[in-house]
Amino acid sequence: MNEKLLARSGGKCELCQKETEVVVYRVLPDTHADNEVVVCESLIGQIEGTEPLQPEAWRFLPDAMWSEIPAVQVIAWRMLNRLKGESWASDALDILYLDDETLEWAKALGEQAEAGEAIVHKDANGNILQNGDSVVLTKTLDVKGSSLSAKLGTVVRNIRLVEDNPEQIEGRVEGQLIVILTKYLRKQG
């Protein structure tokens, strides 16, 4: 971390102001001179969209959005937009003011930022599912276009996540590959 960033941040996260493990994050596109921000290491995955968004972890944004540092304002604007389904984030976004240049920078990634948001598959209990997991059916399901009925309690091994739909997985039941809704299954320990 360069001396300028260290002095500006005081060694704290410039978003939440916590004194934890921090890293330097480059706010894209890096066409601006001061595009680096000191951020908690734990927030990076959510900012980049590689980890599921946890709205409660971002409750500090209504304070951070008033930072004098344009790069912090850009991150706050982008994260508030991703969280606008939360009433507190929507309210903050309504009163946030960015000058034209900063707003243009914040919008510069457009759909790319949203496309980078991770699709997360969760079972009926909220557990995150991965390719290759084993799951148990929590309801007897009739398979469309087949006489097959997948019974309650059936274990489906080595599942495959449906890439573009977080509510569906694929798995084999009685040798037949079927699509199963995640709300009807539970991850097996």
Automatic annotation (TrEMBL):
Checking Pfam families in the record gives: YjdM
Q: Does the keyword Hydrolase apply?
A: yes
Q: Which residues form a coiled coil?
A: none
Where on the tree of life does the source sit, at the highest rank? Bacteria
Please name the SMART domains in this protein's record: PhnA_Zn_Ribbon
Give the PhnA protein N-terminal proteobacterial domain ranges: 4-48
Which InterPro entries does its entry note? PhnaA_N_proteobac, YjdM_C
Keywords, alphabetical: Hydrolase
What would you give as a GO molecular function for this chain, any one? hydrolase activity
* Protein name in UniProt: Phosphonoacetate hydrolase
This chain's source organism reads Parapedobacter koreensis
Lineage start: Bacteria, Pseudomonadati, Bacteroidota, Sphingobacteriia, Sphingobacteriales
